[in-house]
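Exercise 7. Given the encoded structure of a 70-residue chain, write a plausible sequence.
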């Protein structure tokens, strides 16, 4: 089974919420607690970028930036 960027983002969001609720969670074979919150957030942000990039490709939008013409 192939995991999509959206599924990974959902998993990171679940992990972040669990840790914020004071629980520990096993994620990718590791037991994560509040001390790992920054790592979870970094992973979530990376997958958020990937989801946006994938959605842009599907919508036919270019990635990157655009220059304004005056």
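Solution.
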């Amino acid at each position: 089974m192939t995991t999509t960027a959206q599924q990974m983002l959902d998993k990171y969001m679940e992990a972040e919420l669990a840790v914020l609720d004071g629980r520990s969670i096993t994620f990718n074979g590791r037991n994560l607690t509040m001390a790992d919150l920054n790592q979870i957030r970094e992973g979530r942000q990376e997958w958020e970028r990937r989801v946006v990039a994938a959605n842009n490709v599907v919508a036919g939008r270019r990635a990157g930036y655009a220059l304004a013409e005056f």
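Remark. The longest helix spans residues 37-59. Students should compare their own answers with the one above.
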